[in-house]
Amino acid sequence: MPGVERALAAWQARPADSHALLLMDFDGTLVDFELDPAAVRLPASRQMLLQSFGTRADLSAAIVSGRRITDLRERAAAGPGVFYAGLHGLEIEGPGMRFMHHAASEAAPTLGVLVAEVKKATKGLTGVMIEDKGLSIVLHVRGASKADRLHALTRFKALAKPYINDGLLRVLPGDEMTELLPNIDWTKGDAVRAIIRHVESMHKQLVWPVYFGDDATDEDAFEEIGDSGLTIGVGHRTAGASFHVDDPNSVEILLRSILATD
User: Fold this and answer.
1) Cα(190)–Cα(250) distance, rounded to whole angstroms?
2) Of 39, 102, 112, 192, whose CB is crowded by the most CB atoms within 10 A?
3) Which residues of the chain have a pLDDT value below 50?
4) Using CA atoms, how far apart are residues 154 and 156, in angstroms rounded to an integer?
C-alpha cells in the first residue's frame, strides 16, 4: 500500500513541537457506503482506534461529516474525547466546545415543509431515498436506475428552486447524493479552522492537522489545511489532497500505524 506508506512517512516527519489533530470524514472515509445510510455502523476495530486517540494527551481527533452530531455519536461511539462536526460543520461539539451556526435554524420551517413534498414527489422510485436531517434534506440515489435518478433529481431541484432563488437554501452535490441545506457561507474548512483554534487554545501549542476525506465536500478542508498539515484523499474522487489511500480499510491501517509510532 504505497499511499499508506507515503502518508505515514509524512506523519513521522511532522514538527516535533506540535500537537497533532486527526480530522476524519465519516461515510466513505471511516466506513464504506451502504444503500441505506441508516445501515452504516463503524466497525468495532475502528471504534477502538478512535477511542484510543480520544484518550491521548499528545494528539486530538475529530469526525467531520454531513451527518448530524447525534447520528455520528451513535454510529461512531468514539467516546467523549473526540470532537464531532455535523452538517458539514454547521454544528460542532467536543471537549470544551459547543457550537451551532447562528443562522442554521432559520431555514428549518421551510425544510420541514419541503421534505414532505420531496418524499411525495419521489415516492415509488426504486432505490431513491430521502433523508430528513432536520436542518437539511438529502436525496440518495445509490441504488436507483439511471432513469429514476434523473427523475428524482429533476423533481428535487424543481421543488427547491424557489428557495434557492430566494437565497434561503443551497444545493450541495455529493457521491450518489444531493443535499439541500441552509444557504450559509460556512463549510467543512471553516469547521476545521474553528476546531484547530480551539485545540490550540486548550493545549497552548501549535496544531498540526491531518485531514482524511473522500468527497467534494472535503475539498474545502483540504484547502484550509494546505501545507500547514497533512491532507489524505480516500479513493479517487478528491483532487486537493497531498496523499491518497484506497478505501476505509486503508484508513484503518494508516490510523493503526500512526497509533503505533508514538
Assistant:
1) 27
2) 192
3) none
4) 5
Q: Is 175 a catalytic residue?
A: no
C-alpha cell at 251: 484508513
Q: Does domain 104-182 have CATH number 3.90.1150.10?
A: no
Per-residue pLDDT of 197-237, as tens digits, reads 999 999 999 999 999 999 989 999 999 999 999 999 999 88
Full-model pTM: 0.92
* Ranges in the chain annotated CATH 3.30.70.1020: 104-182
Count of residues in the chain: 262
Residue found under cell 468527497:
215
Type of residue at 163? Y
CA angle, 87 as apex, 231 and 51 as ends, to 5°? 60
CATH fold label, 2-101+186-261: Rossmann fold (3.40.50)
Q: Are 98 and 92 in contact (CB under 8 A)?
A: yes
Give CA–CA dist 207/59, Å, rounded: 9
Q: 237-251, pLDDT tens digit by residue?
A: 888 999 999 999 999
Residue partners of 213: CB distance under 8 A and separation at least 6: 24, 25, 29, 64, 188, 219, 221, 222, 231, 232, 233, 234, 238, 241
Give me the residue label for grid cell 482524511. Answer: 212
